[in-house]
Fold this protein.
Amino acid sequence: MTHLEARRHAGASPERVTMLVEDGAVVATTRIRFRHPLLCFRAWLRFRKLYGGARTAPGFIRGCASVVNPSTLVNISVWTSRRSMLLWAGTRPHVAAVQWTYGRTREVWSADWILRHASPSALSWEGPVDGLEVGVSSAAARSTEP
């Protein structure tokens, strides 16, 4: 399979559109190492709230903040397009979160890339992901293999 289609799920916001991975969903990753573990916890709460608010942003598919160790946080977000990601990155809540973060870190790195291919294991992933239906059933995946 060369692409994975994510279809609208019942109840999804109208801004969410059918997205083909081969068209280039954008994935952004940021790793933040804080000066103190308490700051990492505060940032985790802040970014969870930020991604909760992003659910209404056009092109937002999913965002996650994860604590790697007591001082390190990793954020990952998935967007239907680079334009959607950049428009959201300039919003007041995101800019405020970035400004708060940069004043409290030892290091930050960030990268984004265009997702063009889903691995074969993605074929067995079923169900909604933040309002989008992804994958196919395991039986259907097995029946399409040569």
In short: Residues 37-54 form the longest helix (18 residues). The mean pLDDT is 75. The two ends are 11 Å apart (CA to CA).
